[in-house]
Amino acid sequence: MTDGPVTVSKLSEHISRLASDYRVVIIGERHRYVESTNLVYELADALTANGECITVALEIASDQAEVLDSAVSGLLPVSTVQIHPIIDSPHFRELIENIHGLVDSGRCLSAAAVDAPAGADIRRDQWISERIADLATNQRVLALLGNLHAMKWTRWTHGNDDPHAAEILEQRDIRVLSIMQDWLGDCDSRIGQYINIESPAAIATVKNIISIAAVHNPPDFSLIADGVVNWRCANA
Q1: Average pLDDT over residues 188-214
Q2: Can you list the alpha helix ranges (DSSP code H) found in 19-150?
Q3: CB-based burial of residue 194 (10 Å sphere; 0-12 exposed, 13-18 middle, 19+ buried)?
């Protein structure tokens, strides 16, 4: 847990230390928030600073893989990458630009489009997990996905067994550091706090996140995630 809300840079330092024992790090998000993409950029910077190679997995359809590769390598403008409108934002495209900047500076870094393309004949979470699992055989994966994809335990009230991506990965014995995020208050400038899942504040955050889905509360919230980041107004 960080000592109160801190800057994105300080937050990334803390999370990068937590990530050392995990092959996959999933940062859950509510889409179109700049703090989320800034955090992933800072984490990519921190994790590759010592020469480690990582892949940043993004919620972009896999049929855009070659276009994304070209954008990250600087051969095509980022505007050529097709991104779903729910996820697309200037901040998200800036993240791709910033990944290109790290690659251009010599970092051992790549980006991967891991979402299911239109017409895929398997569930999105199954597709996402299989793509991430393939990437994780070679190097650490840092994934930016919607909060629900980051859940490591899901029991639906309707009884179907439809696990999310993080749970499927752990079922394959791939250790996942799962961090969910929530935004508190309406403001232009925020600072974030990482909170371990054992904290009542973290449990309250996860309850709020999963309340939008028809899922049961777990017997132990550490089954769902390892921690949360709460973003608070900087002047609060």
Answers
A1: 94
A2: 34-48, 65-73, 90-104, 124-136
A3: buried
Residues 6 or more apart whose CB falls under 8 angstroms from that of 181 comprise: 27, 28, 29, 30, 33, 35, 36, 39, 147, 192, 228, 229, 230, 231
Tens-digit pLDDT profile for residues 78-110: 999 999 999 999 999 999 999 999 999 999 999
Q: Which of 236, 226, 232 is nearest to 22 (CA)?
A: 226
Residues 6+ apart with CB under 8 A from 141: 23, 24, 25, 54, 55, 56, 57, 112, 132, 135
What is the helix (H) or strand (E) element at residue 177, kind and residue range?
strand 176-184
- Residues of the chain with pLDDT > 90: what percent? 88
State both tokens at 165. Answer: 């991506």
User: 146: Cβ–Cβ under 8 A, 6 or more apart, which residues?
Assistant: 28, 29, 30, 31, 59
Q: What is the pTM of this model?
A: 0.96
Give me the pLDDT at residue 149, please. 97
- Compute the average pLDDT of residues 140-155: 96
Q: Assess contact for 144 and 36: CB atoms under 8 A.
A: yes
> With 70 as the cut, is the pLDDT of residue 236 above it?
no
Q: Residue 69 carries which side chain, given as an amino acid letter?
A: D
CB 83 within 8 A of CB 92: yes
Contact between 179 and 25 under an 8 Å Cβ cutoff? The reply is yes
Helix (H, G, I), strand (E, B) or coil at 115: strand
Angstrom distance (rounded) from CA 71 to CA 111: 10
What's the average model confidence in pLDDT over 148-177? 93
